[in-house]
Specification:
Blueprint lengths: L4 H7 L18 E5 L2 E4 L4 E4 L2 H4 L8 H13 L11 H13 L4 E7 L2 H18 L7 E5 L8 H4 L20 E3 L5 H14 L3 E6 L3 E2 L5 E2 L2 H13 L3 E5 L23 E4 L11 E6 H5 L20 H16 L2 H16 L8 E7 L2 E6 L5 H10 L2 E2 L6 E4 L7 H16 L3
Helix pairs in contact: 3-10, 4-10, 11-13
Length: 421
């Protein structure tokens, strides 16, 4: 099965993500997954170091999620969510409200992280419109940030460091500033808001870790400052926890480490344990109430076709069960310590700029990667699945990964980076 027919036939028709199709290295064909393993058509077996873009937090093919998905598949795999509701969606909305702070009570489902952020932005803008304030046409986001690839979300990503610079002049222009990390940046941030707050609808950030922008870490104190300034200048605060939510940073949600809460939160990726596409935008009661009116135009006019998909909701409920039953946060703490210990020797390697770990996120930042395809090939030769980007080699493994598997991943990184790249 080294060269299955579907591979050759299909590659001429597929358009792959984040890929220059003319110069790409051929992708590897996967035929099966299990726990932290990916099985390839050529017989190789890889240890997955990134849990399918951070989604498979319980590992692949978890039998409990599989069982719940199978039960739901037999009953009702999908039904429209317009004028009809169903048990999996309502139970999931209730459970999300229960594990989030008291005032985050209203859940809008969609089917991808980018759309969840689009909905959050739309909610924030319309919140002010419904209150009669038509001046707030801007959003405030941060350098190093990433919030998705759809048009509205591209407009709030870092315009210089991100992947969307080609669209400069096409996208709406919002405010992109530095995170208030130190005295100087705090003072600049305060002055900026003093001058511009009346035209801003909301502040949006990824709490604790700016993921695709470079796995950039910041302290919980930054989130406290954002909450303070949002309150001071009467702005909504959005936390994009699509990457950081569901245990990835060491707490169930990253914002918990700051003991503050947003007005809107976006969730996806690990929401279903990496099994189905599902996302949620959760808002406070105050925001929800601003949409209640006798005027139909004040409603939130948004409705993804597959929103609240029953099959995906059943998987998400099963995933939440596993967080309660199998002590995932304790596993994350052990992964964090092991990565801290085992990635530390990389600091001494030539070309390494930084090594950092938070929760189940381990990062080796290089001065530069001169040959990305070569680096990816060298890692693949170690029978691991690790996908560096920009100047970052990172690990975001499943929380159920074994210590030996994790050791294989960290050893592979050290071995490959010890070679000329």
């Amino acid at each position: 099965m080294n060269n299955p027919s579907w591979l050759k036939d299909g590659l001429s028709h597929i358009w792959l993500p984040y890929t220059q199709m003319q110069t790409m290295t051929a992708p590897i064909p996967a035929i099966a997954t299990k726990e932290s393993r990916i099985y390839l058509a050529d017989g190789r077996e890889l240890i997955d170091g990134i849990a399918s873009w951070w989604t498979a937090c319980h590992g692949y093919n978890h039998p409990y999620i599989y069982k719940k998905a199978e039960e739901q598949l037999r009953e009702m795999p999908h039904i429209m969510f317009g004028g009809i509701v169903h048990e999996p969606a309502l139970r999931l909305a209730s459970r999300l409200a229960k594990i989030l702070p008291d005032n985050l009570n209203h859940v809008f489902f969609s089917d991808s992280g980018s759309v969840a952020v689009e909905v959050a932005l739309k909610m924030a803008m319309q919140y002010w419109l419904n209150k009669g304030d038509t001046k707030r046409k801007k959003l405030l986001a941060f350098r190093g940030g990433y919030h998705g690839d759809t048009m509205a979300t591209m407009a709030i990503c870092d315009p210089e460091e991100g992947m969307h610079s080609l669209f400069t002049g096409i996208l709406p222009e919002h405010y992109i500033v530095d995170l208030p990390k130190d005295e100087e940046s705090i003072a600049r941030f305060d002055l900026f808001l003093e001058q511009h707050h009346s035209g801003i609808a909301a502040i949006i950030t990824e709490p604790l870790i700016q993921g695709a922008g470079g796995m950039l870490f910041h302290s919980p104190e930054v989130l406290k400052r954002l909450r303070y300034f949002a309150d001071k200048y009467n702005l909504l605060l959005i936390f994009d926890e699509i990457f950081t939510g569901f245990g990835r940073t060491g707490s169930m949600f990253a914002f918990e480490q700051a003991n503050v809460a947003p007005d809107i939160i976006t969730l996806s990726k690990a929401l279903t344990g990496g099994t189905m596409a599902l996302a949620a935008t959760v808002a406070t009661t105050s925001i929800f109430n601003s949409f209640l009116s006798d005027n139909p135009i004040h409603a939130l006019m948004h409705g993804p076709t597959f929103m609240a998909n029953p099959l995906a909701c059943a998987c998400a409920l099963a995933s939440l069960d596993l967080f309660e039953q199998e002590n995932r946060l304790e596993q994350v703490a052990k992964i964090s310590q092991q990565m801290t210990d085992e990635l530390a020797p990389c600091r001494a390697l030539p070309g390494v700029k930084d090594v950092r770990v938070m929760g189940a996120v381990g990062v080796v930042e290089l001065e530069k990667i001169t040959d990305m395809n070569k680096l990816k090939s060298q890692l693949l030769e170690q029978n691991v699945w690790i996908r560096p980007f920009r100047n970052i080699v990172y690990l975001t493994p499943a929380f159920t990964i074994t210590p030996k598997e994790l050791q294989n991943l960290t050893a592979a990184i050290y071995k490959v980076l010890s070679q000329a790249i």
